Amino acid sequence: MRRTRFDRWPCPIARATDLLGDGWTPIVMREAFGGCHRFEQFQQRLGVSRATLVQRLRKLVAAGMLEKIAYQEGPRRYEYRLTDKGRAFFDILAAMWRFGEDWLFRRGHAPVVLIDRDSQAEIRPVVVDEATGRRIDVRRLGVSLRSPAST
Amino acid sequence: MRRTRFDRWPCPIARATDLLGDGWTPIVMREAFGGCHRFEQFQQRLGVSRATLVQRLRKLVAAGMLEKIAYQEGPRRYEYRLTDKGRAFFDILAAMWRFGEDWLFRRGHAPVVLIDRDSQAEIRPVVVDEATGRRIDVRRLGVSLRSPAST
């Protein structure tokens, strides 16, 4: 069955959904943020078949999330680096981490925590409004058409 | 081809990925936050087949994201309400919105913006660390095993 595509919908959530629809996207991106750059590193950490990984990395390069850069000549070898767009994806992963930690394990029993490596303090991602720094009040939230003047 | 399942992996991102893997999850949840409660409302707004929608709503109820509540007897009619878990999913949608707005439209050309309905101010979701209110510095981020004492 062909998946419904959301990538031309006019809603930012719908478009991001399309990118996430392939379950491997967040997992591969998680490893990229964790310091994976080379094909063998991804493969070792994920235990995924070469064919699947080739396809996933190609998709992320095509989407502009990773770039493939030659780091050695003769034989030429490549590594995968986060682009600006790829780095911006971090917030989605951070929000997924927090939701997963709070709701997809027995309460308080997620086996891993995010920490600041310098201070060892636990990091708990949360979404706020950039301008005010405050949590977003969903009951007051609306969606408005962007006025042409502001684009 | 059967999708790889991530819902028993020990990583919060992997588990959230599994929930997101079905592309309709964020779309249906978006409508729930937008005030949809009844089957016909979801169907009208999404233009999706009844069969698909039945299946998606059932999945979200089974996942504890929505609850199905009778709001009328004779004939009995149901509506779908966000649970606490479903409400917590908002942060993922907010992070997806921001990423989509910034990176999945021509810069500055997303046709819609989030607003605070009271002040009409634009809302731009961003992820921070809950304790400090500061952006998370990915270069200093680490993952640590939770110490048994803290669970």
The average pLDDT score of chain A comes to 90
If you consult CATH, what is the topology of chain A?
Arc Repressor Mutant, subunit A
Oligomeric state = homodimer
Q: Classify the beta-strand content of chain A into a percent band.
A: 15-25%
Count structural domains of chain A.
1
The CATH homologous superfamily of chain A is called Winged helix-like DNA-binding domain superfamily/Winged helix DNA-binding domain
Helical fraction of chain A: 25-40%
Number of helices of chain A: 6
Distance between the termini of chain A: 38 Å
Tally of strands of chain A:
6
Shape of chain A: globular
Ranges of chain A where pLDDT stays below 50 over 5 or more residues in a row are: none
Largest interface: A-B, 81 and 81 residues
The major β-sheet of chain A equals: 2 strands, antiparallel
- Series of H and E elements of chain A: HHHHEEHHEEEE
* CATH architecture descriptor text of chain A: Orthogonal Bundle
Features:
alpha+beta, two-stranded antiparallel sheet, Arc Repressor Mutant, subunit A, homodimer, 6 helices, 151 residues
What is the compact description of this entry?
The structure is a homodimer of 151-residue chains. With 151 residues, chain A is of the alpha+beta class.
